[in-house]
Amino acid sequence: MGDVMVSPSTAAVEVAVYWHTRRRAWSIRAGNRVVRHVAETALRDVRFVVHHAAVARVQRLQVREVCAFAVGTPIVAPRWPSTIRVRFDPFEAASFLTEDGLPVVRASLVHFEADGSCYAVL
Fold first, then answer.
1. pLDDT, tens digit, for every residue of 30-76?
2. How far apart are CA 59 and CA 12, in angstroms?
3. In the beta sheet, which residues pair with residue 15?
4. HSE-CB of 52 using CA atoms within 13 angstroms
5. Domain ranges in the chain?
6. What is the value of pTM for the model shown?
7. Distance (Å, rounded) from C-alpha 120 to C-alpha 86?
């Protein structure tokens, strides 16, 4: 596989990434500001963050809002063959899950695909 490269312009700058359902793209937030929308991206040293009060509100009102995201350092990396799919559905569970239903809170590398899916090296 190709080497994982850290982009010099974003080295050591953590960002939050979440799927924007209307734009059908990944939103990248630095601090409290969305800085861009992209089809694909990758992060290293990732923490999966869920705001449980927001999940409860989404479940109660049946209206989607940003209540979970991945936080990490942007990198340029291919999707590795050993990755597993990680997903989040606030109507199903208040955590990120593998396809087997196991909760995920951290990952070494996460690749966010253009179709809205994400794959992680745990």
1. 998 999 999 999 999 999 999 999 889 888 898 888 889 999 999 99
2. 35
3. 72
4. 1
5. 8-121
6. 0.84
7. 7
Task: State the Cα angle at 13 between 1 and 50, rounded to 5°.
Answer: 90
Cβ-Cβ contacts under 8 Å for 23 (sequence gap 6 or more): 37
- Residue 91: count of CB within 10 angstroms of its CB: 9
Spatial CA neighbour of 112 closest among 35, 10, 44: 44
Q: What is d(CA 57, CA 67) in angstroms, rounded to the nearest whole number? A: 9
d(CA 12, CA 67): 24
The pLDDT, as a whole number, for residue 119 is: 96
